[in-house]
Every structure is written in structure tokens, then in C-alpha cells.
Amino acid sequence: MKLLTTLLAIALSCSSLTVFAAGAIEGEVQRQPLNVSAIVIFLGFVAATLGISYWAARNTRSSSEFYNAGGNISGLKNGTAIAGDFMSAASFLGITALMFGAGFDGLVLSLGAFSAWPIMLFLLARRVRNLGNFTFVDVVSMRLEKSRIRYVAIVGTIVVVVLYLIAQMVGAGKLIELLFGLPYEIAVVTVAVLVLAYVTFGGMLATTWVQIIKAILLMTGVTVLAFLVMKEANFSFSELLRGAADNHPLGERMLSPGVAFKDPIQVATILTSMLFGVLGLPHILMRLFTVPNAHEAKKSAFYASLFMGYFYLLLIIVGFGTAFLLYNNPQFFDDNGQLLGGGNMAAIHLSNAVGGSLLTGFMSAVSFATILAVVAGLTVSGAAAISHDLYAEVLCKGKPDPKKEMQLTRITTLLIGVIAVGLGILFQNENVAFIATMPMVVAASVNFPILFLSLFWAGLTTRGAIYGATLGLISSVALIIIGPQVWVSVLGFEEPLFPYNYPALFTMPLAFAVAWFFSISDRSERAGIDRANYHSLLIRSEYGEE
Amino acid sequence: MTHDQKLKAIAVRTRRRFLFSIIALAFYFSFSLAWTEPGAFLSLPLGDGLLNGALLMFILLIVLFIALEFLFLTIAKRELRKEAAQSEEQVR
User: Fold this and answer.
1) Most CB within 10 Å of its CB: which of A240, A347, A397, A526?
2) If you measure CA to CA, which chain B residue comes closest to A313?
3) Interatomic CA distance for residues A347 and A222, integer angstroms
4) For A321-378, how does the pLDDT look when each residue is reduced to its tens digit (9 = 90+)?
């Protein structure tokens, strides 16, 4: 019976694996009793962030200030905001749940999420910052035929933002239902209203501060939690691992690879999607433009990885701590031997086990704040794609009426909020696991190849970039559909036609190959201009505008 | 700095970017070895405790990546100072 319970727990935890990428909470949730301390702490967070939004609104008068906070954020602040943008609720709850069920294998996701940042620093930070103004689309359109490549890159951005948003909103509704005992619809509307208040008035400046505050709260909470877990283990890592192995139904096996993932290719597909997906996420890349220069952009990436490295190292303690302190404590399990509220509640129950209701309330409130910070970043990115990339740069040929652009930016923000609520409610009973997978795979297969090639390969032409991105998009969507998440879980077939959930290991090289082939075979007049542009922009990409 | 000097410096920087990226990616994907038969030794405990090679590898990878980033930034900073000194000399 205990083994059966374990396997169920692992299965539940593995479902959270797929949603980690976009930060959603998946599967059936059991609504918890109203958590008063969590609500009080959360209201404190809301009051502080709304106050900041009010201040930010007074400093956000132009579209430029809306998109990049005037470009005046320091590297340290921006790095903290990036960490706040990226360390989602599911990084904390989902990875811990996976470690609670399957032990060591949960760490694959931690490594995937973290390791994009060194590559961001080495390859992208300087050149992206020097070539773009507000979005990564600015960078790729700098040397290629502006209108056509912008359309393609805008589609890439919108697809990623919308899918990410659906996963976040559904995850938010379920998570808040789970943590606070609030009805799903109220949770979704609350998230949208708060995010609109931040973004519509305070733009990127307010979003940055929401993300900074959230990052500090999350890291503080996880530090306290890890400290209290270590105290239970007499501050001995060996004792923590011994306790986890003794109490976990899988015993010492949970400390080794091979419980949730059997196949190294499966692990490689996850690692590829996570790392290159992050490098193509428009709302993450957009943060590189909020700093005054390339040096600060590089510092941003460094501080972001420093904070995230610290966070993911602490998750080892928290993850194994759940096995150590929950399995032998019947108060956290129901009559069927299931963890109360499901696997995603493991970290919250651990907070209760070591810190009582105050720490539980704090961690629940931080999880809610986390969703707000991520959705705010997505909303700014989506609004910029429409008002800057499409309206200002394509429709107005780079010469928009500033007042009209600002108006459109705010209208787009409101529209995104309404769409987010609509999609959140529409998809509330759907299996969003595949929707949560898609943004990372699409970002890795569409955005990253064209961004990388436009920065580092003189031979890239507009035709090659368009074909590469289009094929990357089609192949990644197709392989996700015939993969286990849609073909088996949604469509009900017995066996998937493609065995992996994260196909970026195959679709990203395909996008690169197609972009290469259609570029080298391009003999058009435009191809010559595209190639010449690379050399003329090379010095600017490294030394900035002179 | 002259145009040619800048182009030379960019070539050096680009090589360095790729070198650091390839090192990081090689270590990153080597993590999947822990799920292969040849990498099975990584699951064995180190010494008397339960800490195994795979878990130690995870921790060391995070530390290594941060160290690589620090090194990359330090080299870039030193280079920037050198370039600034060169430019000053040329102005004189």
C-alpha cells in the first residue's frame, strides 16, 4: 500500500515536471481551509507594491519609460528582478514536489533553469543590449528586412507570451485555490486586476520593483525554511540525506538518478528545452534593455545567476527535507495515504512542519506574489510586441505619434489582462501541461535560433531567418501534439507517435539547419544587404552606439 | 581605438565567448551521463555518507558556472581598462 502511495505521489509529482517551465500548477487540487495569516501577509505585499506602482506611474510618461523603465535600472537591481521574474511558484513548489516524489531527478529542472544564465552572459547580454532598444525583435530586425522579420518575430513573441500566460493563469487559479482556499475565478480575476494595476500605470518600472520585492521575499522564505530543515538534521547534510532515505518509500534509491527519468535522451531533451528556451523568452530578454549599458546588462545576468544558484542550491535541502520530515508525519496525509492538497503542497507542508502557521502563511503569500511578478513581466512583453514592434516599428515605419503609442500600449495592456482572465477561465478544466511545455520549446526553436544567428553569423539572410523560424514553430508544435502530453493525455491514444515531451533537442537544430540552408542558397539582392549589414553592425554590437 | 583594432578585439572577444559557452555547455550536458550505464558510478555514495557523485556533480556545476561567469567578467573588465588606456595613449 505504501509503495502504491509512493508511485501515485511520483506520478503526481511528474505531472508538475511538465508545467514547471511556465510555472503552472497542474492536476486536481484540493481546496485548503482559508489561510488567514497568508492573506494578511499577502495584503501587506499588495499594499507595498501598489504604493510602488503609484510612484512608478508618476515616472512613466513615455512609451520608452513604459517598455524599459527609462533604461536606468542598475545591474544589481535588474539581476534581482530577473531572478524574481524567473523563479516561479512552480520552481519552488513544483521542483520540491518532484523531489518529494522522485528524489534526485527533480534536480534536472533546477539545473536546466539555472544554466541558461551563464550562456546569457557569455553570448547574448552585451550584443543584445547594444543592438536593441526595447525588445529582442529590435535586435533581429536591425540587420534583416525590417517588416518581414518583425512579423515573424512578433508571432514568436505572441505565441510564447500567450501560451505562458495561459499556463500561468490556470496555475495561478489552482495554486491560490490550493493555498488560500479562494474560488478559482476569484483567484484569476484578482491576479489580473493586480497585474493591470501594476503594469498599466507603472509599466516596466513598477514591474521591476514587484519582481525585486518578490525575489527578496522568496529567497528569504527559502533561506529560513532551509535553515529550519537543517536544524532538524542537526546541521548535518549527511543526516538530512540519511533521514530522507530512511523515510522515503524508495529508500536510498531516491538519492540517485533514474526514478522519474529512465532515459538519458529524455534528460537531454529537458536540458535543451530549459536552457535554450530561457535564452529565447521575450519577457526575459526584454529585461536586458532596462539597464543603461552593456556592462550593466552583463552584471544583470551575473547577479541573476548568483541569486538563482543560491536558490536552487537551497532547494536541495528543501526538497530532501520534504522526504525527511513529511513521510513520517501522518498529519500531512489523508486517509488514502495521499499528501493533503496534492504533491505541490509538499513545500508548504514542510513550512508548517518546521515553522508553524506563520511560516506557512508567509510561504503561501510569497507563492501568490510570485505569480503576480511573472504575469506582470509577460504583460509588459506582450504589450511591447503589439504597440512597439507592430504599431510603432512596422505600421508607422519607426515614426509613431508618441501619445498614440502610449495610449495603444495601455489599451493593449488592458486587453492582455482581459484575455488572460478569459483564457484562464476557459482552460480551467483542461490539461494545460502541454500548453506549459510549449513556450519553452517554441522559444528555443523559433526565437533563440534567429536571435543567435543574427548576432553571430554574417551569412544569415531574411529568407533564411523566416524559413528557419517558421519551420521551428511548425515542428515544435507538431512534435508536442504527437508527443505523450497531447497524443496520449489529451487525445487518449495508447502510445505517443513521438516519445518526448520536450522536443527542442530535435526542433532547434532543425530550425538552425533550415535557416542555414535557405540563407546560403539565397542569391537575392536583399541577401547581399543582410550580409553587409552584419559587418556594419558588428562594431556597434560590441562597442555600442558611437 | 582604430576600426581595425576594434575588429581584432571583437574577434578575440568572440572566440572567448564561444570558448566559455562550449565549456559551460559541455559540463551542462555531461549531467545526463548520470542516467547512462557508463555513468552509473555517479550514483555510488562517496565515502561513508549517502552523498553520491550525481548530487555532488549538481552542486559543483552550479558553483563552477558562477565561477566561470566571474572569470569571464573579470577578463572583460581587465580588457576594457586596457582598451581605455590604449585610446588615451592614441589621443596623446
Assistant:
1) A347
2) B59
3) 10
4) 999 999 989 988 888 888 887 777 889 899 999 998 889 888 888 888 888 888 888 8
